[in-house]
Amino acid sequence: MAGQFEIVGMRETAQVEPEQKKKWYEGKPVVSIAVLVLIVTGCLACSLITTKDPSYLDLKNYNVPPNQEFLFGTDTMGRDIFSMVWYGGRISLFIGIVSMVISTVIAVIYGTVSACAPAWADHLLMRFTEIFLSVPGLLLVIFLQAALGEANVLSLSFVIGITGWMSISKVIRTEVRRLRNSEYVIASRCMGGSFFHILWRHLAPNFVSPVMFMVVMNVRSAIVAESTLSFMGIGLPVEVISWGSMLSLAEKALLSNSWWMILIPGAFLVVTLLCITNLGNYLRRNVNRQERNL
Amino acid sequence: MPELLEVKNLSVSFDTPGGIVQAVRDVSFSLRAGETLAVVGESGCGKSVLCKSIMKLLPPSASIRSGSILVKGADITGYRERDMQMLRGKLFSMILQDPLTALNPVMPVGGQIAEAVKVLKPKISKAELKARVVELLTLVGIDRPEERMKMYPCHFSGGMRQRIVLAAALAGNPDILFADEPTTALDVTIQAQILSLLGSIQKELHTAVIFVTHDLGIVKRIADRVAVMYAGKIIETGTAEEILTDPRHPYTWGLLQSLPSCSKGKDTLYTIPGMPPALINLPKGDAFACRNAYALGIDYEEEPPMFRVTDTHYAATWLLDPRAPETDAGLVCCGDHTPKPPDGSSENISKNNAIQNTRYCPARAVYSEIGAEHLYKNTETVDAEVDKNDKHGEILLDVQHLSRTFSIAKKLSVNAVDDVSFQIRRGEIFGLVGESGSGKSTVARCIMNICRPSGRGTGNVKRHVKLQEGLHKAAGKHPDAAADIRTREAPGTGEMRPGRILYKGVDIWDGRQFRANKRMLGTTRQIIFQDSNSSLNPRMKVCDIIAEPMKIWNITPPRGSHRAEAGFQMHYVGLDASCLDKYPAELSGGQRQRVAIARALAMEPELLVADEPVAALDVSIQAQIVNLFRHLQKEHGFSFLFIAHDLAMVEFLCDRVGVMYQGRLVETGTVGEVFANPRHEYTKKLLSAMQRDIFPQTRNKRQ
Amino acid sequence: MRHKIIYVILSIFLLSVMVFYMARLAPGDPLASYYGDRAEKMSPKERKWAEDKLGLNDPVTVQYVRWLDRAFHGDFGISYKYKMDVMEVIRERMGNTLLLGGIGFFLTFGLSLLLGVLCTWHEDRMLDRVICKVGTVTSCIPEFWLSLVLILIFAVNLKWLPSSGAYTIGKEDDTADRIWHLILPMTVVVLGHLWYYAYMVRNKLLEEVRADYVLLARVKGIGKRSIMFRHCLRNILPSYLSIMAVSVPHILGGTYIVEMVFSYPGLGTLSYESARYQDYNLLMVLCLMSGSLVILCNMAAQAISEKIDPGITHTE
């Protein structure tokens, strides 16, 4: 007891680290990733999991509702929807990714150039994108598709890619501007860092996160664009199976009330898009976690 | 008659993902009408939370765990939002720390005040409402109120906005005014004005004020009573006089000693080592024990209760227990009992210095050392050294007639820097002070080749009218303040160049000379920015950040690998090697600033430019960083341009000082000269705003 | 002000050049839309005559100048497909699209504000979470598929609502019938865009309720509800308005698809046809109309935000 009232001065006290109650998977879109992986592997391995040729026109069994043999039924031309969904998914995802690559490349170059250009050029470039944006995207696609003639997978990706870069390039421009004026870039310039040093060490790593979000969202909008175009009959023809072209038979399906022809490919489409969206939202970080005042 | 406000055993906690944060623990105090209570403590000690919890303004994650709040005898603890709405504005009101964000940017200021009036008197007529707004604006010292009430917050300077916030807070004639660090975000001269305004209004309206601050220096001016908070608890409370002259808690001793004016004539600023604890999982016993040189054994076991000193003065420290040893004046020199910090701890150099200098030196003993006659004792010796340097020291940096103009609109431009000339010698610490917007940072940026000098100096370019008006207002309603500026000899007429900057004789804005000396300029000049948060790349690890300049110039690290070198530099600035693999976001503000310093020092610079390196930090951390600068400068001997708005820091650290006002360098000289005998009006104003009067006065009273 | 007018005129001019050249350079047979199937059977001589008649043989620039000249006199030419004055064709369809797009736009606008406020008010509580989840799902459903599903459920199976058209033939002036036909397309137009904007409002409001001035307003004794509406909402309006204005083509593009699925006689189906069948004159006017609308909306947005936000005029 006596020792308690002696001066002992500062002592290292163990600072109890706040326990992390979070599990590794918390806050991550685990379900979305799992479903997405499932769909993508299914599409890649479509020849393994399907038993029927998706393009075979089984004229005896057309417009059959889902049953033991045709898991998802057949369409008005007698094709097996179960195989078509997986084969079609492959095409849809492929178009989504290819056009994403095209528009991202254009957007990154255009946005970076615009951000680094002198004020007047920047102004001009941005006005140009505004005018581009003022033409409804669909019309633009129709023009281009008409110019390229009969659509195939590559030309369609190209058209979608080339019409989808404007909004990303705007984001990239503002992002580059912001980064360019950030103090760590100035600090690096003070130290004598060369342009490429700054680009590689400072700009690129900080750039990735916001652009990743845009990129993922771009895959989504490309898939939507493909399906919409094919549905309208200006995208892929009915013979080339994709989720969109499968749905272009919907008009006939409506007449015969064949719900499976509309709901099944559409459900695949929507679930894929939803997973991609969740993934994108995860990539875009939550910054403001301050407490609210209201 | 019941007390106006009585808080009994209040505990508030936040439910966060990391655990339960006990922000306020068992706090009791009371407040009488017209009285001023100062709540003092480092940030993160629960002062703001205390105010907000009384007004029930806390976010949903916070809850009052226990205790009660009585207003005029009525218990409001269980009041719902609707009931509280009736009380807010009328009974109590608050002014916030940052006037720049406290006003709605898209609403005219008059409207924001009128809103507050209307809440209380919904049926007020338009004319009456206007009259009341005008009255309030006049009350807080804003002239031409009819005109001003239609303007938006962006048209006002920080000080003016704080006045408007005050007007809005006073709209309902509240009985209690909470002032949550209302002057921290303001310039020194403005701080003084706001404080005196608060004082006069309080007298006029007989409002009780709870003044939250981390600066004990302010307390003397305004407070009747003081409550010192630490880790969510009030650890000492008493009248202002008692706390300032007879503090009992070691934490209060520490706070008093860390006032810059208290360290005058010492090598290092006193700092309380370490940081306030995170309020999650508090350690057993007294939360302050691990920073307390006088900690008793029992402090690590049990939390001390409140001990009574006098009827008004209480303190929670075991030192007041009858069983505790005497620690007062008699113990000052007992060096043999010096407790040693445990080995292997992460204590850093400056921290140790600070401890050794001040250990066993209770605040009371400090006073005797500080008298007006001692004020410049030490700085004079420094001056003598500088004089020697003047004769022998080589001029490292020579800024000649530097000007920099920013164009705001087509025909309007601001001379951010206007014909500034000064020199820095080898091994000299030059301080550049001035209020925000006076062009200090622009000078630094010009020196570092970040922004190019432009414009031609005075007379040729019209200053931006609105800006100037704002500055005048900010400078305290002296529209003719500009006339005070000393007229200088006109710069060479017809000279088109916006000045020159010679660094080691190289004109750094001359393209050819710059390219020829690129490596020298890049390696021997380094800069430290104000906001370490944005000057460190958030995606680089600390070791990469520190090694970056070496990688840029392909310098073989003297200690083998880049990583080893980074580790060494970190140790040097007092950081733990465990931080090497962390990202800047995982470090605290002080630690980040240390990383920035380590990065600058890794190159062994000859000139270090620091642009307000401590302004964004907490006061106690500020002192730690300034100590570090002083220590490093002594070892390295680099020349140092230190930019700050805090005069006390400059006085402590610098050899020579330059005062900037509205883009011009209005006064230069050694620290001793300028501080003892300021010539320019603005410098005088700055100096008078420094709270330097606190100790001599208390001394007189004691005698 | 003068700058703005010049900018509008210049933009519209540029747009017309772009569309004109793009349309002419695209392969395809404009004669097919004029003469229908007969175009394929024409002899080269007949073809030449027909092309001369429509002025298609001159260099594109000459064609453009001619078009511009006529346009200045209010003559935009005839539609190849409908063999009518272009303006006439458009006038017929305009009302339908304005009805669908306009009401859809304002519904989206209002509902997303409402949802945004609701979510912010209940941040991180049950209602907010449910709305966010449902919203994310709806934002992922392509419009055409949503239309199909709604038709499948409400028109084909339940037979509650009509599946196509703007009115029942013979009941052109019956308002109730029109509304009847509008329900499904309107639902799709609104649902297709709602969450995108509501989420934006939510994010902006969440930032706003964390601002210091909210705290000061509460200190003054103002109720939470009026802080939300008089301060927070008011502060996000300028940016929201400009976003909404910029989004006009977005929503317009949406109505195009909806119009097609529901065979709704509006400008959407018309533009689609004119682009597919090289109905040049019609296409030009449609593009210019939508383009000018976008540009004007942009200007309006800017004007509004300048009016509300005093900061903008001073930072520029």
Offer a quick outline of the entry.
The complex is a heterotrimer of chains A (294), B (703) and C (316). Helices cover 36% and strands 20% of the residues of chain B.
CATH topology category name of the domain at 93-280 in chain C: MetI-like fold
Estimate the mean pLDDT confidence of chain B. Answer: 77
Beta-strand residue percentage of chain B: 15-25%
Output the radius of gyration of chain C.
24 Å
Q: Sheet with the most strands of chain B?
A: 8 strands, mixed
What helical percentage do the residues of chain C reach? Answer: over 70%
CATH class of the largest domain in chain B: Alpha Beta
CATH topology of the largest domain in chain B: Rossmann fold
Radius of gyration of chain B: 27 Å
Number of domains of chain B: 3
Descriptive account of the structure:
The complex is a heterotrimer of chains A (294), B (703) and C (316). Helix content of chain A is 65%, strand content 0%. Chain A has helices at 30-44, 46-49, 81-116, 119-134, 137-148, 153-163, 166-180, 183-191, 195-232, 243-247, 250-255, 259-283. Chain A is flat. The two termini of chain A are 51 Å apart. The model of chain A has no long low-confidence stretch (mean pLDDT 81). With 703 residues, chain B is α/β, with parallel strands linked by helices. In chain B, the strands form four sheets. In chain B, strands 6-7-8-3-9-10-12-11 form an eight-stranded mixed beta sheet, sandwiched between helices. In chain B, strands 18-19-20-15-21-22 form a six-stranded mixed beta sheet, sandwiched between helices. Chain C has a domain at 93-280: MetI-like (MetI-like fold). In chain C, helix 6 crosses helix 12 and helix 12 crosses helix 13 (267-276). Chains A and B meet through helix 8 and helix 9 of A and helix 18, strand 18 and helix 20 of B.
SSE layout:
The complex is a heterotrimer of chains A (294), B (703) and C (316).
Chain A: H1 30-44, H2 46-49, H3 81-116, H4 119-134, H5 137-148, H6 153-163, H7 166-180, H8 183-191, H9 195-232, H10 243-247, H11 250-255, H12 259-283
Chain B: E1 5-16, E2 19-31, E3 36-40, H1 47-55, E4 62-71, E5 74-75, H2 81-87, E6 92-95, H3 99-102, H4 109-120, H5 126-139, H6 145-148, H7 158-170, E7 176-180, H8 188-205, E8 208-213, H9 216-222, E9 225-230, E10 233-239, H10 240-245, H11 250-257, E11 307-308, E12 314-315, H12 349-358, H13 363-369, H14 377-392, E13 395-407, E14 413-425, E15 429-433, H15 440-447, H16 465-474, E16 500-503, E17 506-507, H17 511-516, H18 518-524, E18 525-528, H19 532-535, H20 542-552, H21 562-572, H22 589-601, E19 607-611, H23 619-636, E20 639-644, H24 647-653, E21 656-661, E22 664-670, H25 671-676, H26 681-689, H27 694-702
Parallel strand pairs in B: 3-8, 3-9, 6-7, 7-8, 15-20, 15-21, 18-19, 19-20
Antiparallel strand pairs in B: 1-2, 1-4, 4-5, 9-10, 10-12, 11-12, 13-14, 13-16, 16-17, 21-22
Helix pairs in contact in B: 4-5, 4-7, 5-7, 8-26, 12-23, 20-21, 20-22, 21-22
Chain C: H1 2-25, H2 30-35, H3 38-41, H4 44-54, H5 60-72, H6 86-121, H7 126-139, H8 143-157, H9 175-208, H10 212-219, H11 224-246, H12 248-261, H13 267-276, H14 280-308, H15 310-315
